[in-house]
Write a structure and sequence with these properties.
This protein has 348 residues and is an alpha+beta fold. Helix content is 33%, strand content 26%. It has 9 helices and 18 strands. The chain is globular. It starts with a strand and ends in a 7-residue tail after the last helix.
């Protein structure tokens, strides 16, 4: 049995850092403000091209870290005392008041779930754990059909309700419903860090958390931000395409560095909430460009589940800027929607 599990965001951001230095951009030391660290179980990188004289770098770093800690305390499933963990542990089926940030993410999650007919579902965690791709995997083997059906009966975005009349609240239709926001919360966090920078008068920046990216303005060379889309291979880092972008968000999802093999069968970490099983189609990687990183993050996950055919039709129907890398018997095919075409300014 072969098992490979690596965070896609860590690899993407490493490639991103390499690219920003290799495509004619200034080196990291020549940016007036850079900040890197860890949050939400992954890494973050921030670059600012122009720093207003009124902004003190160390104070800005403290503001950013305070914000990251605050959001983590609201949406983490790793912290037992986070707001989301408390909701998951609560077996009540009554309305539960929630903070505005948590409500915002849950509302967007439900919108994407409805839009994709359940291809995106923040309640899919029990199935992810069953297949061994949870935070603490103990075995990597295909479960039997009965176990899959048992977990399928315990998930469903339709069992989660939200309301914003009078007060912000959510409730479960099943006491043990479990919500995991890992496929959308990083995107939300990227947006919030970007808004924090803008409140400080910063107009030219790049924020990346776990591979989810938001860019505004220009890089230090007064050019669009040059962002790489990685070739979906498990054993090396190769650039598939470079896009020059500004004033937009970007998210990539792939199944090529998080899977296990058993008895000659490859099982992806991408679980289809509609079937309870890993995806089996040929879509290796999907990149989404959108106005918000939160939306791009969720849509990338959803279209990764939908696959190259259903996902492409969905993206075209909803005017989504999407770039598909599809596995062939030898190598890969590229396919992009009409909305994505205007962003392919650079190519490798």
């Amino acid at each position: 049995m072969k098992y490979i599990k690596q965070r896609r965001g860590v690899w993407l951001c490493l490639l991103l850092v390499f690219l920003l230095s290799a495509c004619g951009s200034k080196t990291e030391q020549e940016y007036p403000f850079t900040y890197s660290g860890l949050t939400e179980g992954t890494s973050f990188h921030i670059k600012v091209s122009k720093l207003p004289e009124s902004v003190i770098s160390e104070q800005l770093k403290h503001q950013i870290m305070d914000l990251l800690d605050e959001i983590n305390g609201q949406m983490s499933t790793y912290l037992e005392d986070s707001e989301l963990s408390s909701f998951n542990q609560n077996t009540s089926t009554d309305w539960v008041p929630v903070s505005a940030p948590l409500f915002t993410v849950l509302k967007e999650a439900q919108r994407i779930s409805q839009l994709t007919n359940g291809a995106f579902d923040v309640t899919v965690g029990p199935l992810v754990n069953l297949w061994g791709f949870g935070p603490d995997p103990t075995k990597f083997a295909a479960p039997d059909d009965a176990l899959i059906q048992e977990r399928l009966n315990k998930i469903g975005y339709n069992y989660l309700s939200i309301k914003e009349e009078e007060s912000l609240a959510v409730k479960k239709a099943m006491p043990d419903l479990y919500v995991d926001l890992s496929a959308i919360a990083k995107g939300y966090t990227v947006d919030q860090v970007g808004l924090l920078l803008e409140k400080n008068g910063i107009t030219d920046y790049m924020v990346e958390i776990g591979g989810e990216i938001r860019v505004r303005g220009k890089n230090a060379s007064s050019e669009p931000w040059h962002i790489a889309i990685e070739q979906p291979t498990s054993n090396e880092r190769v650039i598939e395409k470079v896009v020059g972008i500004t004033d937009i968000a970007m998210a990539t999802s792939g199944d090529y560095r998080n899977f296990f093999e058993a008895n000659g069968v490859r099982f992806s970490h991408a679980i289809d909430p509609r079937t309870g099983r890993p995806i089996t189609h040929k879509l290796a990687s999907i990149t989404i460009l959108s106005k918000t990183t939160m939306e791009a993050d969720a849509l990338a996950t959803a279209i990764m589940v939908l696959g190259p055919d259903e996902g492409y039709k969905f993206a075209e129907r909803h005017n989504i800027a999407a770039f598909f890398i599809i596995k062939k018997d030898s190598g890969f095919d590229e396919k992009s929607t009409r909305a994505f075409a205007s962003f392919t300014k650079l190519k490798r």
